[in-house]
Fold this sequence. Notes:
The chain is α+β, with helices and mostly antiparallel strands.
Amino acid sequence: MYYKKLQTIYSENELSKEFSISLLDRFDDFLRRNHKKDYLSPYQFALENDISVEQSVRFLMYYSGKEGILDVLPFVDCLSPTCHSSRIFLNDMDEYLDNRVICEDCGRTYSKENILPFIKVYFDIKDGVGIPPEKK
Ligand SMILES: [Zn+2]
């Protein structure tokens, strides 16, 4: 199921036009190494595979969505100097009150328009997607 999904998405979207098939193996490795973390970083995936962040995000986006295996976790970094490691995840609707986004750690608020250009994404493996213990 897991491998079939990896391959189906790769072939149905003609990813071979942009990404070598070996990237699929490395994606599998990446998922195995990181699936217990809270999120998967497309920045790390880009760095490890010598592709651009943009390519990395695009590749992972193909694996997101209804038929995919990943959820998208958009976030912005809080700009408060006292709070610089804090990420504000935007999936929580609570943070969208009045078109404002609120940092839960320091309470600083941002208007949605102002943060739109700074949105970054992480990914997470969907609940129920099991990675088989044996590598193919
Ligand atoms: Zn903050």
